[in-house]
Design brief:
By secondary structure, this protein is mainly beta. Helices cover 10% and strands 31% of the residues. It folds into two domains: 132 residues, Thrombin, subunit H (Beta Barrel), CATH 2.40.10; 136 residues, tm1086 (SG structure) domain (tm1086 (SG structure) fold). The chain has a six-stranded antiparallel β-barrel. Strands 10, 13, 14, 15, 16 and 17 form a six-stranded mixed beta sheet that branches. The longest helix has 7 residues. The two termini are 24 Å apart.
């Protein structure tokens, strides 16, 4: 088992609630110049969950499960920034009010610059929820570190989930990490250059059909662990040859130029210390028994 500082990671409760879908007035225009009017970011999404394909939906930036915010009026300020930065993938989220009180879900990632987190709940639970429900997240993970691999940084990752990711040591100072997809650096778009990876995501561009087919990008599912090749997220999202970042798919494919499936960062290194290994079942649903897992 990988050695970590798990025993020193701080655990605390955070509060949030489901956020209404955000839809702009008027038409939007896709990367081919075609106008569209479709569902998008936010909401209690009933028929989309972890394990479903991130492609083929009649929507743009669709999020599986329930999109949660601490204060929709202050997306980049307290307390929303605390919810984004301290919530980690794999954290438990418990409904503490309303008809679904007592039911639990799982944080699967962040979306937007500092806007909201996404929580997977079973559909029968979502059917009982309202936008007034209160949700309590058992936050732990920021500050988690690999004791024997200081060159690899961890972000947004629950310690218990890390232990279930089937990561193995090579004996050569590197780690093998199961992923479903290896994304070439040239495909990383919206979000590149952001100086902070403890919140939000960045997108795999899917506007070039030949590249999508070559790298099987259209096989990605919500909750998949994927490798972003030649990308270092240590101190922001940047192209660095030889770097590898591991992330999780948090929103659907997109029609807008520069956008596509959204990836929240989990692991990163500025040099080749991570060896991605293709494993079709490398999905949070399969590891935690949620969604289609």
């Amino acid at each position: 088992m990988l050695k970590t500082n798990k025993d020193r990671v701080v655990e605390m409760f955070l509060a949030c609630k489901p956020g209404m879908p955000r839809v702009g007035l008027g038409w939007r225009v896709d990367h081919q110049g075609k106008p569209f009017l479709l569902p998008g970011i936010g909401g209690i999404t009933l028929n989309v969950e972890v394990g479903d394909s991130a492609f083929g939906l009649a929507g743009d930036h669709i999020e599986p499960g329930v999109s949660c915010t601490a204060n929709a009026e202050k997306p980049n300020d307290f307390p929303n920034n605390s919810l984004q930065i301290l919530s980690c993938v794999g954290n438990e989220a418990k409904i503490v009010s309303g008809e679904a009180k007592g039911e639990t879900g799982t944080v699967i990632g962040h979306h937007g610059g500092s806007e909201h987190i996404i929580v997977d709940f079973p559909r029968p639970v979502k059917e009982k929820m309202t936008y007034d429900d209160k949700i309590q997240v058992r936050a732990k993970g920021q500050g988690l570190a690999l004791t024997d691999y200081p060159g690899i940084k961890l972000f947004n990752l629950d310690p218990d989930l890390l232990e279930k990711m089937k990561i193995t040591e090579t004996g050569k100072g590197t780690l093998r990490v199961p992923v479903t997809t290896k994304v070439p650096a040239a495909c990383m778009g919206s979000g590149v250059g952001r100086a902070h990876v403890g919140a939000g995501d960045y997108d795999v561009m899917t506007s070039d059909p030949d590249t999508v087919k070559k790298f099987n990008l259209d096989q990605m599912r919500f909750g998949d662990f994927v490798a972003l090749m030649d990308h270092d997220n240590s101190y922001g999202r940047a192209f660095v040859q030889g770097a590898v970042s591991i992330g999780i798919v948090v929103h659907s494919n997109c029609l807008l130029a520069g956008h596509g499936p959204g990836i929240s960062t989990l692991m990163t290194c500025p040099e080749s210390l991570i060896e991605p290994v293709i494993e079709p079942d490398a999905n949070i649903g399969a590891l935690l028994g949620i969604g289609k897992g």
